[in-house]
Design a protein that fits this description.
heterodimer, A: 161 residues, alpha+beta, Immunoglobulin-like, 2 domains, 6-stranded mixed beta sheet, 3-stranded antiparallel beta sheet, 2 helices, 29% helix, B: 109 residues, mainly beta
Amino acid sequence: MTVLKVNSITPNLTRRLYLSALGILGLSSWLTPFSAGAKQPEAMEAIAKIVGSNAIQNGRVKLVIPPLVESGNLVVLKVAIESPMTSTDYVKAVHIISEANPLPNIFTAYFTPRSGRAEVTTRVRLADSQRVWAIAQMSDGGYWQGYADTLVTLSACTEMI
Amino acid sequence: MSKTSRTGITAPANAKKDAIIEIRAIAQHDMETGFRYTEDGKRIPRDIIRLFTCRYNDEEVFKADFYPGIGANPLIIFTTIAVASGTIECKWTGDDGYEAVNQVKITVS
């Protein structure tokens, strides 16, 4: 009798386990779009390569991208850095780094004291909902960073044609 | 992509001395990322503009490195100080010998 009882319980248990595992899987697929972390270490590596052993400070860099974009193929990106832009104190370069694109580097702009303002606008591709970083390199050797988050409903870069 | 294509720059024709002027440059280019595949599984090779430079009276005032993350038909808007009358020259260089140059005259008073 006892043997029979065990047999009748175990199939039920495994079925329950199987179903709950399915449920968790289903839930996790809902959560992934926000983490998009697969490429993030690469982005951090790219930032480390730019900065070297210097410290990065937060602030002074303002990065503007729309918080929600329909297509990642053309996203207007504007970056502005607070700086007097004189011959002794100016922004040398700004690097735009993406956390979810197949290649973390998007572009690098080099300014001179004759730029007047450290500001640049262009159109970029974004492969997924993600955080985009802007790393500014100052003439005094300091580094400043800023970021912007965006939600992309249709991604770019890897689609079939 | 061909060796060159249509490009253009927009800058004010007249400016006050030491005023900050805005320059817009645009190029007609596919900016093929190198991450896309055709239906039969062949990878489409990367073909992009790599470098943009702007010279004002033969002095470099702005430069940018492009990667595949820049959208097709790249547009770039930046600023410079109007120091003297002369020419502003923008140059795009890219893969497969791509090169395009645009010039615009500016009068500074």
